[in-house]
Amino acid sequence: MQRVGRNQLRLATLAALVTAVGLFVCGSSAATPAQSTTAAASKPKVTFGYVTQLSIAPYFVQEANGAKAEAKKLGVGIKVVDSGRVSSSVISLTQTLITTGVKGVAIVPGDTAIGPRVTALTSRAHIPLVASDSPLKDASGKPVPFVGMNNAQAGVQVGKIAARIYNKLGWSASDTGFADVEVDLQACLLRTNAEVAWFKKLVPSFSSSNVVKVPYDGGATKAQDSMNATITAHPEIKHWVIASCNDDGVVGAIRALQTKGFPVGNILGVGLGGNLACSLYKTDYVKQAMRATTWNDPAVLGATSIKLLYQMAVQHKHVPKISYVATPEVNLTNYSKLIDCSKQK
Prior knowledge:
alpha/beta; Rossmann fold; six-stranded parallel beta sheet; 12 helices; 12 strands; elongated
């Protein structure tokens, strides 16, 4: 009986040790997944790609910032890349983003002709695509979801504003020129063609021969250079109406007139987009020459693009094919009420 008791004691002790070791091992292995889960939770499970034109104009930086803010709000990651408005770069950057595993791509294209190629890439990867500012279509002509202003309607709006102001100024149509500052891109031409057409419609006395094409690349510097040449070629023009694809084109043309000593009261500039409004309405000469512009909030465009990608990729929802944004008229008296100038830098 005594021997059996000792054996039982040994067995009980051994069992206790095994149990303790087992608990220690199980406790250690259970801690690792918990820690991994915490680490994983800190990283977004979904990341979107955003191909834009950061190096071209501050407008695109504001647009990208809006996209980043929306991504943070939704708890998703975002990779912003700069194509510099080079079509081949848009395509290669889209492919690279897909390779890294993004769950959707938003593109701000400089040329809508890339549509079939980029849609082919995203279709093969089975991820959604959103176009911002300029629309994109696949090879069959089917449009992808688009976020932006109605380009043709934006031009109509500018043409109407310019005509309204012009008709109050009492200038002679014979010595007034219309500087049509344009880029040979679809989105720009939709705007500028509508600007000219509606101005002429509302000012019947204005001759088509007084409309002068001023080519530029979307930036103020090139617009200024081109307008310098235009002024030299048309010394007979005593008054200038100026319209363009964006604020930059109008501001560049105004600066050219300023360097020539042109009377600021003889200039009627109407911008588009309002991306330079906060600076131009604080600058002498320019603020007098730029009689009005329109406000297209780039941050809203960027945010809406990410929101649509999230709805498609995460929530598996159908989204509208077109999401237009409003573009209210802006001038010297109301710009500070409509635009957050702390974001226009």
